[in-house]
Amino acid sequence: MKIYNIVLTLILFCAYNASFGQPIFPDDGVVFNDNIVSRVDITINPDTLEWLYDNVESYQEFHATFLFTTDGVIETVENIGFRLRGNTSRYSGKKSFKVSFNTFEPGRKWHGLEKMNLNGEHNDPSVSRSKICWDLLKDFGIAAPRSNHVELYINGNYHGLYLNVEHIDEEFVESRFGNKDGNLYKCLYPADLDFMGSNPELYKENLYGRRTYDLKTNTAYDDYSDLAHFIDVLNNTTPGNDFICEMEKVFNIYDYLKIIVIDIYTANWDGYIYNKNNFYLYHNTETGKFEYINYDMDNTLGIDWMGKDWATRDVYDWEQHGDNVRPLYTRIMANPELKDQYSVYFRQFLEQIIDSDINNRINALRDKIAPYIINDPFYPLDYGFSYSDFISSFEESFGAHVKYGIKPYLADRKTSALSQLSNPDMKPVIKYIKHGHPLPGEDLWVNAFIEDEDTNPEVKISYTLNGGALQNVLMYDDGNHEDGSQNDGFYGGVIYNVEMNSSIAFRVKAIDQFGQVSALPCDPIIIEFYPSEDPDLVINEFMASNLTTVADEFDEFDDWIEIFNKGTESVWLGDKFLSDNISNPDKWQFPDITLAPGDFVLIWADSDTDQGPLHTNFKLSASGEEIGIFDSESTAFFPLDTLSFGEQQTDISYGLITDGNTPWVFFNDPTPGSSNQWQSIKNNSGFNALLKLYPNPVHDGNVYLSEKRDYTIFNALGKRIYSGFDSNCFSTEGFDKGIYALVTKKGESLKFVVR
After folding, report:
1. Strands (E), 208-308
2. 131 pLDDT higher than 60
3. Which of 62-66, 283-287, 379-383 shows the lowest per-residue confidence on average (mean pLDDT)?
4. Which end of the chain is more exposed for a tag (fewer CB within 10 A), N or C?
5. Can you tell me the distance from the alpha carbon of 210 to that of 188, in angstroms, rounded to the nearest whole number?
6. To the nearest 5 percent, what fractions of the chain are helix, strand and coil?
7. CA–CA separation, 567 vs 658, rounded Å?
8. Are strands 38-43 and 147-154 parallel, antiparallel or unpaired?
9. Spatial contact of 530 and 501, defined as CB atoms under 8 Å apart
């Protein structure tokens, strides 16, 4: 069959990195309900609790029971893991704790979470600084952990007011960026991002008993090549426009400018810019870019251990001097265009976020948590804090390491920053560029997020067709041009009726009323249409929540995807790919197998490639996501078959009603690795249901009928496997795994499964 493939290429860069995804902001939900102070109860063996307090450096987790109470909701989780957490806080009187829902119950999540961080905030008399900082990040459109205050009881004893902070792991990055298969690095002192060489192994340095750049996902591969490349680009790209163009390919640079603003405004000196510490880097596989994620923000808003006045420090010269450089900060600030954008962002933050209502919000937070401070027995242990210190900490300094009250710090930092900031005209910022994947004759849509002081810049798709003259299509933020909602900052436009055998090269261009112009990406996105042979592979059936239906060769009930060759020729799968993220097509490569016409192959989506060639490096989400089969790299991973699906039910599969043919339907009787046609064969042993078959499923053994019959056994392809005469027993030895039908001479039919 002759059809036309779409080749997506980004000149001098990898295909599909042209799709730039904005962060997602999940609801607070039950766990992070910020309207009240929730309650956490931990029940643990008293001797174990005593051991934890006596062995503060241990990371050993112990069995405990977890009970959560909030706003009329009471939930209990048995058999959780419980341990101390933190660094210096391990030696404090008021300790911090880690709750793990999946340590002793692998794969278990509670409200989508695997971990919970209960932070004592022992340095902070307000127990509020981290909470305020996390909220400011979210208010400014930055992906940050959710947080709320909880009261903690252990074995019925009140341990005080704690801050519940969302754990940064694969669940976090998936909820913010829509994928979790990229590398997530936890970066601790001295993580300066300085170039050590092109060899990825150099960045696995081990200091203080752990890696400086500690890989938290994909640990079986332990591949640091993406981090090494990012650090190489950061340090070794020539200054000027080249720096912006090259960095923009590998790093979400514009959102990081906003993070710099918040780090400097809140005086987060224990982060990257000053102390080379406390941040995560996530390689977002949808965009190909690294995302910067803040971590541990308790030493902020006037807390100081170094004798600095953080409220007046120069907003353009904030890093620590006298030791190694911090290129992610210094090289950005050395670039005039990025420095101007930073300046404008800083003013926007002060005027829009740090507004006249912030003191009212802080007062409301104080009043909400105050009753839980009064009887907190651990609150005074480290610095002698009292309830009156708590109340005054919002207005006055405590002395020692608390040099400012929170509200005076916010006011003084704002006044000082405004006196230092320049007032440039920023170029329009273009972020999160996305485009469609049309077939020849269809329309190509493009959208992007635009930020500028000008509330109505002119935005266009600037493109060439077949290398000809430059053309422009206007983009709108009106809700009618593939742009999302009206006035949401996203602009969209459409190039209509893209013809076959044509090539389109485009960028997004924005012009403000002051004549400032931006165009991204620096190297145009190229879309070419050319004829190619397309194998007829389809996603035939899948299950995203397999509890009892079918087990793999390790007797594990994992997600599965069934691929069917509906064509007339055999297809070699070795150069093709399967993915649960359409924007990341080469996520998992098929093994060296050939699929004959009409044959099926069952793939285990279990994120466990060590179990064999048919086990992928991703899992499916029962709440809904994507699946795609993609052709070889030579066709720019042309999509052979793609599917977006919604919420799935346990042990009910979703598949094509007949092999290779729509519509999609739910199957109460799944047929993994075999024909969906057998869905039409119902178990029918007669009106009185006299004939029974057992056991079902069966593992390479004897199958018994409740009565003797003449019968024939067919596999899922309709091929006769075995015949019995006046018999009530047969052996499945030599049967392949799959679905079978037993049909008697009387017309009775029974299905059974061989595992």
Report:
1. 210-211, 213-215, 279-284, 289-294
2. yes
3. 283-287
4. N
5. 9
6. 20, 35, 45
7. 14
8. parallel
9. yes
Contacts of residue 316, defined as CB under 8 A and 6 or more positions apart, other chains included, come to 333, 339, 420
- Distance between CA 567 and CA 393 in Å, rounded? 72
User: Residues 193-224, buried b or exposed e (16+ Cβ, 10 A)?
Assistant: bebeeeebeebeeeeeeebbbbbebbeeeeeb
Comparing 530 with 357, the larger pLDDT belongs to 357
CA 559 to chain CA centroid, Å, is 19
Each residue's pLDDT tens digit, 323-357:
778 999 999 999 999 999 999 999 999 998 998 78
SS3 505: strand
DSSP state of 407: H
**CA pair distance 77, 113, nearest whole angstrom:** 12
- The dihedral of CA 513, 514, 515, 521: what is its sign? negative
* Cα torsion angle, 440, 442, 443, 447, sign: negative
Residue 252, phi then psi, degrees to nearest 5: -75, 80
Q: Rounded to whole angstroms, how far apart are CA atoms 587 and 573?
A: 14
Tokens 């403000």 found at: 512
Q: How far apart are CA 127 and CA 151, in angstroms?
A: 12
0.90 exceeded by the pTM? no
Structure tokens at 617: 């490096």
Q: Which of left, alpha, beta for 270 (phi over 0: left; psi -120 to 50: alpha)? A: alpha
Compute φ and ψ for 377, nearest 5 degrees. -75, -15
Q: What angle do CA 746, 747, 753 make, to 5 degrees?
A: 115
Cα separation, 127 vs 132, in Å, equals 10
- CA 673 to CA 614: how far, in whole Å? 12
Alpha helices in 387-544 (DSSP H): 387-392, 406-420
- For residues 527 and 477, give the distance between their C-alpha atoms in angstroms, rounded to a whole number: 24
- Nearest 5°: CA angle at 305, between 300 and 308? 80
Any idea which residue has 């956490």 for tokens?
40
Collapsed DSSP state (helix, strand, coil) of residue 677: helix
Instruction: State the Cα–Cα distance between residues 578 and 600, nearest whole angstrom.
Output: 15
176 neighbors 23 (Cβ within 8 angstroms): yes
Instruction: Provide the 3-class DSSP secondary structure of residue 593.
Output: coil
